[in-house]
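One-letter codes give the sequence; backbone shape is given numerically. An example follows:

. . .
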Amino acid sequence: MTRFLISTVLFFVLSGEMISQGCCSGGSGSPIAGGASQGVLQDRQAEVSVNYQYLSSNRFLVGERDTARLFDNLSSNYLYGRLAYGVTKDLTISVETGYFLNKTQIGLRKIDTINSSGFGDLIIFPRYDILNRTTEAKRTEITLGMGYKIPIGTYNDSTVVYTNPTTGQKYYTTSPPTVQPTTGSQDFIFYGFAFQEYTKSKFRIFANALYIKKGWNPLGQKFGDYSSIGLFVGKTFFRKLGVVLQVKGEHISKMKYDKNVDMLALYNIDVKSTGSRKLFFVPQLSFSHKLLTIYALAELPLYQFVYGTQVASQHQVTTGISYRFFTVKPKE
């Protein structure tokens, strides 16, 4: 259960990216679930997990102050799957992807609604234990990893803005990135993870650091690089119930773009309204029975600062289920 708590509590380490690039600038690449920062599996152990995420916000900020809404609501319903395998006792490789059931931006007075759906990104994520030491009193683990994100969904979907009443001809404009399933860029992901458990008390303390180096997409856009630091404490009760509390700080850089392209006119992106600094509190509960674990967590914003005018983080909930098993019989 300890290893499962490590992986699932970090499910939302990147989920703030879904709306943190700005109300008109978006940057809604698929969040990286679980495998973004976690310890490794055991030798020849496999994991199959499916997660559901709900996100909604109607709050807008200028800097750190509330301001008038530019649209009524931004929401998404998202499914995320991960398949991971312990190649050795120190090396684990995971393949992950997600599907948006919907991403919806509702305009003021319920008009001008924009929505999309579809696959986001494919993520290949190897990670390696550089230290795994167990004594009678405690267990210590340090993991490093580097991942690669490949966009497989749409990043330039369009919305009908006018239909000629005489000819029926429709005119389109590119939807804002807030409702695109992916940013369309290939990104590199770097992370470090440290964990320590006090065996007798079943108390755990751990931390992670994560950095995503964003690439350029074919539209001449480079959404801001993402970095975060998380601190966690956790304890197991009744041998099956896990409780973990996290404090996470994140920073997203401002967007870069082709200076010869009018991003606002062509792609609904206000480049001045990109980038942010945020602090979150993330509580999680999990319950394990044999090889199966179910869990739920919520991400609660404590502090937010955005550049320009942007939609803020507000409501975000995740539930999931994970099944772990050995592909070969463990050695006695």
User: Anything to note?
Assistant: The two ends are 20 Å apart (CA to CA). The CA atoms of residues 175 and 302 lie 30 Å apart.
